[in-house]
Amino acid sequence: MKAILLVDHGSVRDAANHMIECVGQLTQARAGDGVIVRVAHMELARPTIAEGLAACVEAGATEVVVFPYMLSPGKHSTRDIPRLSAEAAAAFPLVSVTVTPAFGVHDKLAEVVLERAGVGVVSASAPPACICVRPEGAPERWCGDACREGAVPVSASH
C-alpha cells in the first residue's frame, strides 16, 4: 500500500505544527482509504521523520513517498529531508521510500496566491516567459527539481 509522509520544518509554536496535521487530514480525505497519509516534522517537534515513517509502515505501507511541505528547493528539502528519510528507511529494508521535490514553481500555487489576494484567475496557462532561471555557470536551475517540465535554462542577464 502507498503512503504519503508530509514533512514540514517543525516549529516551537504549537499552532504552526498543527497546520501540517490539518493538511494531512485534508490530503487523506482527498486521497481516500487506498492511500495512507501521515505527517512529520524535520526538527523542533514530533513526530520526527523516523516516527512518521514508522507510522506509515505500521499502517501497512510498502511504499512511502516523502513530500517536503516546503516552497523552494532549499537545503532542507534537497539535503536534510532526503538524508533523514534515508536514515529512517534503513530500519525498513523491504519498504520503498522516495522523496519528492518541494513545491517549487506550479500553476496551482499561483492560483492560491490570487485567491488569497482576492484576484480572479484570468488565464489558466503560464506565459512563454515563465521559465526557470539558471545563472551562467550554475550547476542547477534556481527553482530546482520542482521546475515546470520543459523549462529552458537561461542566463541571469535575461
Detailed description of the structure:
- The protein has 158 residues and is an alpha/beta fold.
- It folds into two domains: 2-99, 3-Layer(aba) Sandwich (Rossmann fold), CATH 3.40.50.1400; 105-158, no CATH class.
- The chain contains four helices and four strands, in the order βαβαβαβα.
- It has helices at 14-31, 49-58, 75-89, 107-116; strands spanning 2-8, 35-41, 63-68, 96-99.
- It has a four-stranded parallel sheet with strand order 2-1-3-4, with helices on both faces.
- Strand 3, helix 3 (75-89) and strand 4 (96-99) form a beta-alpha-beta unit.
- It is globular.
Helix and strand topology:
Blueprint: E1 2-8, H1 14-31, E2 35-41, H2 49-58, E3 63-68, H3 75-89, E4 96-99, H4 107-116
Parallel strand pairs: 1-2, 1-3, 3-4
Helix pairs in contact: 2-3
Number of domains: 2
DSSP summary: helix tally = 4
**Which descriptor suits the 3D outline?**
globular
- The helix content, as a percent range, equals 25-40%
Percent in strands: 15-25%
Low-confidence stretches: 148-158
In short:
The chain is of the alpha/beta class and 158 residues long.
What brief labels describe this structure?
Rossmann fold; 158 residues; 4 helices; 2 domains; alpha/beta; globular
